[in-house]
């Protein structure tokens, strides 16, 4: 089923289609929230709050922009509201490793992910968020522009500069980072 169709059906009163929307976005939103707040329990609570907020405000969504952008605007706002209340700066969540068969590969992958995580911690929050939205959540440049409320050109420039910055940092650090080039 198409997400836009599911949204229209929910706006017309279908709760079943809302379940479809939740299932479709649940892992993506959780990943984004966790990477911003860095706590599993808090991330789970925020995801629930986000879905409740989306449900009660879905009637306000007009198909002018993409549903992705509208949804992730709520996600980002909810996370930043939480962080402001906690008087914390957004932190980058640790990258969790994916299961691999051999123990040697697990160790190597864990080391690589830890080193990549160290690089990502050196980016500012906007650079990090743009990379997260583009490569983890697969949002388009237009959608990122809507979510972060910055001009499209700025999204492109910041994404390009972020990748260049990561390459420069990778070159300086050595180790596994040479693979990123």
From TrEMBL:
All copies of domain RNA polymerase sigma factor 70 region 4 type, residue ranges: 114-163
Keywords (A to Z) from UniProt: Sigma factor, Transcription, Transcription regulation
Stored PANTHER family: RNA POLYMERASE ECF-TYPE SIGMA FACTO, RNA POLYMERASE SIGMA FACTOR
Organism: Ureibacillus sinduriensis BLB-1 = JCM 15800
The UniProt record lists the keyword Transcription: yes
GO molecular function, one term: DNA binding
GO biological process, one term: DNA-templated transcription initiation
RNA polymerase sigma-70 region domain residues: 23-88
Lineage of the species this protein comes from: Bacteria, Bacillati, Bacillota, Bacilli, Bacillales
Name of the molecule in the record: RNA polymerase sigma factor
